[in-house]
Amino acid sequence: DAKTTQPTSMDCAEGRAANLPCNHSTISGNEYVYWYRQIHSQGPQYIIHGLKNNETNEMASLIITEDRKSSTLILPHATLRDTAVYYCIAYGYNFGNEKLTFGTGTRLTIIP
Amino acid sequence: GAVVSQHPSWVICKSGTSVKIECRSLDFQATTMFWYRQFPKQSLMLMATSNEGSKATYEQGVEKDKFLINHASLTLSTLTVTSAHPEDSSFYICSARGVGAYEQYFGPGTRLTVT
After folding, report:
1. CB burial class (10 A; 0-12, 13-18, 19+) of residue A96?
2. CB-based contacts of A106: which residues, under 8 Å, 6+ apart?
3. What is the pLDDT of residue B60?
4. Cross-strand pairs, B80
């Protein structure tokens, strides 16, 4: 799976949009961009994923650049409960051997 | 939908004893389940992948005789930490993937403390 690079930490004011960047310059054509988050002492929570089109769901939006080398996760109106570590993962079909490889992620802190 | 549970949520055991952790997919059938370990202030590390009805595949450096994995049904996988030692104290997290799906859904984790 392709390696991803994320900033170590970010702060965002409550109520504002949180924009979390991710670089995945070596992503291959069959790899999706997946985002998970982990709130302290809990299991990771699936947020969203995409291949090349922008995606939106009830939690977030995912913007993927046209060359697919980077993406941005957007939490439109951040709340204190969004404080967590956010993981961007390139993940795709691998003949049944698909694995999620977690990097160090971005520690997002929502400031009241 | 896509709920995964783990039991127990936390456990304290004495050095040398064995501990079993259960992972259940509550509302879907999971052909594949994964076990991760997370030490404080570190990221999740995949320990092993298990497919229902077959032997687990362990990641490099993970002792298969120490971490016994059983995936006997499409909704249950168990991890047994045998002869636990204090260095096995960690947060153990399972995930499950449904039939024909890519997404993994994670359990809430089990915190193991070995004294």
Report:
1. exposed
2. A6, A7, A8, A9, A10, A20, A85, A86, A88
3. 94
4. B20, B68
* Distance from C-alpha of B52 to C-alpha of B71, rounded to nearest angstrom: 5
Q: Are B43 and A103 in contact (CB < 8 Å)?
A: yes
Q: How far is B101 from chain A (nearest CA, A)?
A: 10
Contacts of B2 in chain A (CB under 8 A): 46
Cα–Cα distance measured from residue B35 to residue B37, given in angstroms and rounded to the nearest whole number: 7
Contact of B19 with B84, CB cutoff 8 Å: yes
Residue B61 buriedness (CB in 10 A; 0-12 / 13-18 / 19+): exposed
> Model confidence over B16-32: pLDDT tens digits?
999 999 999 999 999 89
Question: Given its phi and psi angles, is residue A101 left (phi above 0), alpha (psi -120 to 50 degrees) or beta?
Answer: beta
Q: Is A43 an interface residue toward B (CB < 8 Å)?
A: yes
pLDDT digits (tens, 9 = 90+) for A48-99: 999 999 999 999 999 999 999 999 999 999 999 999 999 999 988 776 667 8
